[in-house]
Every structure is written in structure tokens, then in C-alpha cells.
Design a protein that fits this description.
This is RNA-binding protein. With about 80 residues, the protein is an alpha+beta fold. The protein has two helices and six strands; from the N terminus they run βαββαβββ. It has helices spanning about 15-20, 50-60; strands at about 1-5, 30-35, 40-50, 65, 70, 75.
């Protein structure tokens, strides 16, 4: 299941995001969306988790949680 993670702190790295979600299950890919000109994070990214039950658990545990002083939002991504 592909998840959209929004409202990330600009300082959050792909590694930080992967570690956060791995606490809830297997993560196959983790991508932050970066500004093409500056290379800085745009504050959102995508995480893919192959197990739907683990992904749904991650959504329920992480949605609206505080990460690096930002209240993140996690939901299934639109394909």
C-alpha cells in the first residue's frame, strides 16, 4: 500500500521517514518530494508498505502525530 505523508518538517530526511514507518512494519520504498531547483524538501513524501495490515496500523498510529515539531498527516495515496 502506498501512503502519502504530508506536513513533514523541512529537516526530515528519507532515512528519518523510513525509520519512523519501519517501527510499524516492512517498508519497501520511501521517497521525499524535493524542490528541483533547491533540492530542499517540499514537506511531503511517499512510503510503500507491502502488507496492508501494517500500513493501516501505521496510518492509525502516525496520522496527526508530532514528528520534529510538525503534526504529520498520513493517508493512503491516490494512484
Amino acid at each position: 500500500m502506498k501512503l502519502l505523508v504530508r506536513n513533514l518538517a523541512r529537516t526530515t530526511t528519507e532515512h528519518d521517514l523510513r525509520v519512523l514507518f519501519q517501527a510499524h512494519g516492512t517498508v519497501t520504498t520511501c521517497n521525499l518530494v524535493l524542490d528541483q531547483e533547491t533540492g530542499a524538501s517540499k514537506g511531503f513524501g511517499f512510503v510503500e508498505m507491502p502488507n496492508a495490515e501494517e500500513a493501516n496500523n501505521a496510518i492509525s498510529q502516525l496520522n496527526l502525530s508530532q514528528v520534529a515539531k510538525s503534526k504529520i498527516r498520513v493517508k493512503p495515496a491516490q494512484n
